[in-house]
Amino acid sequence: MKPMLTVIGLMSGTSLDGVDAAIIHTDGERIAGFGPDISLPYTAALRQRARGILDHAPTLSPDDPELKAVEYAITRRHIDAVRQLQALVPDIDLIGFHGQTILHAPQRRQTWQIGDAGLLSRATGVAVIHDFRSADVAAGGEGAPLVPWFHAALLHDVPGPVAVLNIGGVANVTFIDADNTIHACDTGPGNALLDDWAMRHTGTACDVDGGLARAGTVNRAIVEQLLADPYFARPAPKSLDRQSFATALDQVAACTPADGAATLAAFTIEAVRRTPLPARPARWYVCGGGRHNPVLMQGLQAALGAPVEAVDRLGWNGDALEAQCFGFLAARSARGLPLSAPTITGGPDGLSGGRLTCAGLMPVPSWIHATSGRRS
Ligand SMILES: Nc1ncnc2c1ncn2[C@@H]1O[C@H](COP(=O)(O)OP(=O)(O)OP(=O)(O)O)[C@@H](O)[C@H]1O
Ligand SMILES: CC(=O)N[C@H]1[C@@H]2OC[C@@H](O2)[C@@H](O)[C@@H]1O[C@H](C)C(=O)O
């Protein structure tokens, strides 16, 4: 076994804003350090086409020509990101490629991330681990969130109970108890509803710095209606699709743009507050793009009754964290280590995941664990 791997992690999240790529030095348990990271945005046209695919994913054939074209364009963007990092750090052992989630329905044993791992491996000359969620979903787990093992590795010297909250398109929490048990789930909406609302009313991709929400008044009755969704009464583990609460936009449709934004921001915040956790976190650390929105951060601080800070305060890189995570998970997969757990996704104890793709005649690296998925 090679002791420490140099891995590029790639994440393109539910916000559909682009590709984050980051280098991590890890054996899948310890983190020896991080290398450079970059973000390559999707063009507005690609973002719109990806959104079209996401909106129609439940009825799409895997051979749909537009799906294939968008998958190709997204893969090319990932190849560009990897090549830029390879120009800085040529000796890369492995790539962890999340792909673009277009559908997540674990109750139907379905989770769908698009992206061509074979093309990525051929174009970069590096072995790729991808399809991180399917094994857990096939075994009855939620398949998400998968970031908790990484948060736990980073938090090893931070005493629990502590929570890490990721506010991406969807929001998810990792909770580490005083005895180091890891619990997790998706809390509810993150920025996705706010993004869609801002696009509808201002033509901008998000409510920049919470400007719209700050000018509005929260409609508490609508927030309560939104929180009546059965998802919030379910115990963890549980996970969401980007579109799980898409009808919320209809429920705020009669609000002014500012009041609608304020109400959707309050929905995100209140969903976090009501998330069933085994104990109250002594501190909350926030990552994901939502930590740049002061309305969300101040609202969380007021609602949670404990200090709320951006993860950057811990010295973490809050923008590269998810990409680093999929590098870390690729190293775990290469070693056959678990990616999930009963208290994280509800999947079986000890289950690894991910699939290995080594394109063409590339030899399978000797340090790849025999159970780390099939070669394609
Ligand atoms: N200055 C800002 N003001 C308000 N919102 C912001 C700002 N910067 C980023 N965001 C929000 O952060 C989002 C991007 O967050 P992030 O990159 O964490 O999402 P993601 O990784 O795609 O999602 P997920 O974690 O659900 O997969 C944007 O869509 C936007 O809503
Ligand atoms: C199916 C899917 O892609 N889920 C994402 C999404 O974005 C946030 C939240 O919903 C989380 O569950 C997950 O991503 C993070 C990286 C995870 O798996 O931990």
From TrEMBL:
Q: Which family does it belong to?
A: Belongs to the anhydro-N-acetylmuramic acid kinase family.
The record's annotation in Pfam families points to: AnmK
Binding positions for ATP per the UniProt entry: G13, T14, S15, L16, D17, G18, V19, D20
Q: Does the keyword Translocase apply?
A: no
| Protein purpose | Catalyzes the specific phosphorylation of 1,6-anhydro-N-acetylmuramic acid (anhMurNAc) with the simultaneous cleavage of the 1,6-anhydro ring, generating MurNAc-6-P. Is required for the utilization of anhMurNAc either imported from the medium or derived from its own cell wall murein, and thus plays a role in cell wall recycling.
The catalysed reaction is: 1,6-anhydro-N-acetyl-beta-muramate + ATP + H2O = N-acetyl-D-muramate 6-phosphate + ADP + H(+)
UniProt pathway: Amino-sugar metabolism; 1,6-anhydro-N-acetylmuramate degradation; Cell wall biogenesis; peptidoglycan recycling
Q: Which GO terms describe its biological process?
A: 1,6-anhydro-N-acetyl-beta-muramic acid catabolic process; amino sugar metabolic process; peptidoglycan turnover
Q: What is its EC number?
A: 2.7.1.170
Give this protein's Gene Ontology molecular function annotations. Answer: ATP binding; kinase activity; phosphotransferase activity, alcohol group as acceptor
The record's InterPro entries line, in alphabetical order, gives: Anhydro_N_Ac-Mur_kinase (IPR005338), ATPase_NBD (IPR043129)
**Keywords for the protein's UniProt record, in alphabetical order:** ATP-binding, Carbohydrate metabolism, Kinase, Nucleotide-binding, Transferase
Q: What is this protein called?
A: Anhydro-N-acetylmuramic acid kinase
Write down the NCBIfam families for this protein, in alphabetical order.
PRK09585.1-5 (NF007141)
Q: What enzyme category does the UniProt record give?
A: transferase
